[in-house]
Amino acid sequence: MKRLPDFLKRPIIDTDKTRTVRKILKTKCLNTVCENARCPNKNECYTKNTATFLIMGNDCTRNCKYCNISCNKPAPLDLEEPKHVAEAVSALGLKYAVITSVTRDDLPDGGAEHFANCIYEIRNLTPEVKIEILTPDFKGLESSLDTIIKAKPDVFNHNIETVRKVFKNARPQGSYDTSLKVLKYIKDYGKITTKSGLMIGLGETLQDIEETLIDLKNAGCDILTIGQYIQPSKNHLEVEKFYEEDEYKTLRELARKVGFKHYQIGPLVRSSYRAAEIAG
What we know:
Order of helices and strands: HEHHEHEHEHEHHEHEHEH
Largest sheet: 8 strands, mixed
Oligomer: single chain
Number of strands: 8
Shape: globular
């Protein structure tokens, strides 16, 4: 594993606020992607009483080569989880909630109804809260996407994750084109704000990144995130490159050139980082 540059390191700081967030999540038996994916920004988010809820368990049916979440046979869905998520959103006093999940290819709808139920429960308890969901591709099933559209999230996020050239190596069970089709379907038929993101440092070129941004824009994507890939362990894909600050300035200029008005681009940017701010 390549040594992590100092500018990518974040200290572990425990405060009353971070302990409060952890206590509420533990009481409701909830998971967060902040913990499971070892997000470097979790302390910053916790101090703001925010967290990205990870629904449908801790085990994923796909084995993406960059992800710290384990690939195992998942447990049955907890049908009380949507209610517990809504209660945690209320207890944390959130104005903007982000919900993501593991991929559940074992479920006929990929978990779309479970996502929808989370949205319904939050709206029932705290109707003023805006909701962003970060979903898997549901294998591109239009029936699953229709379920999501009916639930009307404020923002629909599905990450392309990486450029076409690297995609199959990083996401062997996924499809670059399916991800684009999912974003386009939600935009075309749901008229919902859409969002996507990618990691850099996996061997892509600037031209590869530009082509991906153009593909996302053509799919109707409204919001973009780009951040540095950090290798979770020696068993995951190695980092090919750590980008420097001047290169992030180039990427911001590229995003503007392609036509993105809303974006977060920086070393530690992740899908849900400052999600409320970027969504406006």
